[in-house]
Specification:
The protein is mainly α. It has helices spanning 5-14, 17-39, 42-58, 69-99, 102-114, 117-134, 138-148, 154-161, 165-196.
């Protein structure tokens, strides 16, 4: 079904599922590309676009769209990306202001000049990444290793494992999300470790 702008907005406000499916079919890919330009993270970009469209449904009874739906969605995605980046920046600033005052950072800098700490941390992080990857479900882990360590394309992996390209993408997304979460916890622990030994 084709919609003109006025009809589409009316159907969105009424909560018509077909109208929301139309948005996914006609705007989703573009919105993900725009979000990825801000975030440089395809999985996160898709998550944010999904959140924007879901939020559109949550507030559908009070929607007030007086511009084109596409422009409205682009603006919403852009704003959400910017807010996310600001939030992440503020989290890092807060984390370091609370847990890494100037004297600790100064002591760490001196220590890194005197001891091979950088190499130790690099080895530790590499080990942690390997441990994290080993926690992935078997099929997910196989796909991720072939993609990231064997430099194989999605098509090559799909053919080799007899699965669809979409399944390959699904496993890669899940693997990256899991690794990101696991390493975030590790990095926070590392900050506390520096504090305890400062």
């Amino acid at each position: 079904m084709k919609y003109n702008e006025e009809t589409l907005v009316e159907q969105l406000i009424s909560g018509d599922e077909k109208a929301y499916k139309y948005i996914y079919d006609h705007h989703y890919i573009l919105l993900c590309r725009i979000a990825n330009e801000y975030l440089n993270d395809p999985f996160l970009a898709e998550t944010i676009v999904g959140d924007v469209i879901y939020h559109l449904w949550e507030i559908h009874t009070s929607l007030n769209i007086n511009i084109s739906v596409r422009y409205y969605l682009i603006k919403a995605v852009r704003n959400r990306c910017i807010n996310f980046l600001k939030s992440e920046y503020e989290k890092r600033e807060t984390c370091f202001s609370l847990f890494a005052p100037d004297d600790i950072l100064e002591n760490y800098t001196k220590a890194s000049d005197s001891y091979p700490l950088d190499h130790l941390l690099e080895d530790e992080l590499e080990h942690k990444i390997k441990v994290t990857i080993s926690k992935l479900p078997q099929e997910c882990r196989r796909v991720f290793i072939k993609s990231r360590f064997e430099s194989k394309s999605y098509e090559e992996i799909a053919q080799e494992l007899c699965i669809s390209v979409n399944t390959v993408k699904y496993h890669i997304k899940n693997a990256l999300a899991f690794i990101r979460t696991d390493l975030d916890k590790y990095l926070i622990s590392l900050i506390f470790l520096f504090i305890s030994f400062s």
